[in-house]
Amino acid sequence: xxxxxxxxxxxxxxxxxxxxxxxxxxxxxxxxxxxxxxxxxxxxxxxxxxxxxxxxxxxxxxxxxxxxxxxxxxxxxxxxxxxxxxxxxxxxxxxxxxxxxxxxxxxxxxxxxxxxxxxxxxxxxxxxxxxxxxxxxxxxxxxxxxxxxxxxxxxxxxxxxxxxxxxxxxxxxxxxxxxxxxxxxxxxxxxxxxxxxxxxxxxxxxxxxxxxxxxxxxxxxxxxxxxxxxxxxxxxxxxxxxxxxxxxxxxxxxxxxxxxxxxxxxxxxxxxxxxxxxxxxxxxxxxxxxxxxxxxxxxxxxxxxxxxxxxxxxxxxxxxxxxxxxxxxxxxxxxxxxxxxxxxxxxxxxxxxxxxxxxxxxxxxxxxxxxxxxxxxxxxxxxxxxxxxxxxxxxxxxxxxxxxxxxxxxxxxxxxxxxxxxxxxxxxxxxxxxxxxxxxxxxxxxxxxxxxxxxxxxxxxxxxxxxxxxxxxxxxxxxxxxxxxxxxxxxxxxxxxxxxxxxxxxxxxxxxxxxxxxxxxxxxxxxxxxxxxxxxxxxxxxxxxxxxxxxxxxxxxxxxxxxxxxxxxxxxxxxxxxxxxxxxxxxxxxxxxxxxxxxxxxxxxxxxxxxxxxxxxxxxxxxxxxxxxxxxxxxxxxxxxxxxxxxxxxxxxxxxxxxxxxxxxxxxxxxxxxxxxxxxxxxxxxxxxxxxxxxxxxx
Length: 699
Known about the structure:
The protein has six helices and 39 strands. By secondary structure, the protein is mostly beta strands. It has a single domain (9-698), classed as TonB-dependent receptor, beta-barrel domain (Maltoporin, Chain A), CATH 2.40.170.20. It has a 22-stranded antiparallel beta barrel. It has a five-stranded mixed sheet with strand order 3-8-9-6-7. The radius of gyration is 25 Å and the shape is globular.
């Protein structure tokens, strides 16, 4: 590969290749150091854990409403008392769903839009703007942000965690910028893993089928000292290709392996955690070549608990991510000089430090405040037709937040606060919110909120450019030197959100929640075309601006009903209306549809049965409304349609003993293959019906 423009080959190797090697060394040293430190303490005799294959107890609807969540206020509170549109996916929900990856598990949240693009890529968002990299949803794993600053959004193909070690997934639809910062615009997903003491003993599983060709994993947990627990795990996934809309193979198979550890020490008022993961994978990319991806992360956290639910914490993590994105050759019949096939390589190192303090002020106020610092170094080895300027970028993010919860009466609470951040692209950003909570009675909650949130520019918005390859053509056919030019004046997208919600335990068998919202957006991303002369047949160069604005509104309804002691039903319905338009006197090359691919309605029905002889049967039926998508080959305002569709997943499992379970899982059972995303074309991909068997055991 030729060196990137303005960056010699030696610099490329130093900027991209070496950080990858250093990161793996850092990861290995951190693992070894953590283990050696705790091994110096004599370990007690190891005990087995009969429940190592998963928690068998089914929570009642009353217990579900009393599950503690932390994402709404950054401190534990019962779900019934959390004043936000939040749903919790429990470990039992994940196990019984038959999900094999995190995106599949997120289908269990009725307040998300989840669409599978191909065998390894997903579009996941809340309350709209579900482009292939939805950039208004912040996702965290144990407090570590996995939102990428390159494109904006989450690369779900590398988030292949061991699902059995997840304690819960908290899904908030609605802004969370006051506590979580920029990019928590339409929602926050907080993935919380189990403590090491809850994963003791040996656990292993193996699965194989027609689409999930093979998957296996193992985890071992042990007690190293009276107050020290440790676990380590490994997982490997190999998925076959999906098909195009014509039924031909899409040649997009993928495989990934990962491993990691967690070490916890519970020293009374002080708790310490050190954990880390490493992964490496390979994806086939139809028509372009193959993509490689790898990464490591290490996180440490100290928490000190005081009297009366006061506490403080200090967390630090390092995260390294490395990906290659192939691009096909561009023939000279399209551009005079053409482009050879090439790879865009991205190497990202993130260093993050976060401090929080939660305390009482008098008898009726809870104060939460914190400070944060994040440093990133991103090196891009540029593809011939897609580049970022500068190719190596160092950035720093400073932040602080303050929130005050005031008890107005014994049942009425007012929470107000704001986050202040400073980034290198747009400077200071302020994200305030005001939230009113009325505990109508012990089983009912009514809440309302007004919030401001921002999406800060990604490198894709700010630094992307693409050369035309035609600068040497003779006049008058000499084209501009750029097909896409960067825009250093791109500003943050902003949201003012208005929400009203209700949550209640209507009886010992019935619970429900309803959230309504109105979102007012400004400075949304647009695509501006710049035609030059009569001799220039295409409107190049194009660049991103902030010419769009508009609003969305709708509601989210979820109901859970314990029909019989052994049969539970859960239903969800979402309505979303979008109205986006250009600011007066501006243009957009895509007609204002570049970042929206959202169904107006979604319906989901989940059934969960405990049958005789330790047999369980779970089914999930979902309906997704048709939606428009602008991703056509012309790049212009051409809108395609993804038709409405039904999807059905089932899992039948037999608990042979406390240590062994056999399961048969079917996904997308209603269709041989089904389109969930993508612009209409012969190469649009469809998701193949999948059936696989799984065996799980633990000692």
